[in-house]
Amino acid sequence: MVQINPSILSADFARLAEEARRVGGPEGADWLHVDVMDNHFVPNLTLGVPVVESLRRATDTPLDCHLMIEDPDRWAPQYVEAGAGSVTFHAEAAAAPVRLAREIRAKGARASMALKPATPIEPYEDLLPELDMLLVMTVEPGFGGQAFLDVMLPKIRRTRQLIDKHGLELWLQVDGGVSASTIERCAEAGADVFVAGSAVYGADDPAAAVQALRAQAREAANGAAGTCAH
Questions:
Q1: Given the residues 38, 64, 132, 175, the one annotated as active site
Q2: Where a divalent metal cation is bound, by residue (predicted)?
Q3: Which of 71, 130, 165, 230 stands 20 to 30 A from 100 (CA)?
Q4: Domain count, the chain
């Protein structure tokens, strides 16, 4: 199932409630991607728990919180309590990723782990059953609007192979430089959840951009599945 998660990092921060609603609706965003940065793990500072709480009240679209922060073991559970339906912590920052994933799940949210571009998936193979989603970053985390890193495509493929090997119902998300010109390659490689920032919020009609990206990804995924079947 293809899912499109617009990133509010590319939205107008002065009108976040309205921007969240602009991508909603029956054919709109599957999730709203919320980038949390602390200016320590990444060189940028964005928003935190109070804004997530406000967004939860402002939109019916579930919130997908991506924590680019130090000490997620301490902070991630607070984002579940603030209303996040999915919380992503970074493998590079978590002290006890299995324990943290279980705590996030126990509080009622989906647990997700992110990998920076230089972090391989293979050392984390045994952790995959503890997760609901794995995020392969296709840019260096910290800023929106970066160019897609094509060298991440083999990593996406390897991750999909590991998920399939274990027969897991694990979503595979990509984040960074996802647009009309890159989403098909990601879908063909095995990703099924796509974070898009400027490709959605930079469009004249963000909701229509979500629908167009979803259609592209579905077609590419179906084509890849057909190829594999032969």
A1: 175
A2: 33, 35, 66, 175
A3: 165
A4: 1
pLDDT above 70 for 205: yes
> Which pair of structure tokens corresponds to residue 179?
């647009």
145-188 per-position pLDDT tens digit? 889 999 999 999 999 999 999 999 999 999 999 999 999 999 99
Q: Which residue has the tokens 């057909």?
A: 226
Distance CA 179, CA 212 (A): 10
Residue type at 122? E
Report pTM: 0.96
pLDDT of 227 > 80? The answer is: no
Q: Domain with 179 in it: what CATH number?
A: 3.20.20.70
175 is catalytic: yes
Q: Residue 41: is it exposed, middle or buried by C-beta count within 10 angstroms (0-12/13-18/19+)?
A: buried
Output the known binding site for a divalent metal cation. 33, 35, 66, 175
Q: Is the pLDDT of residue 50 over 80?
A: yes
Catalytic pick from 30, 35, 64, 192? 35
Q: Which domain holds residue 102?
A: 3-228
Across 112-124, average pLDDT = 98
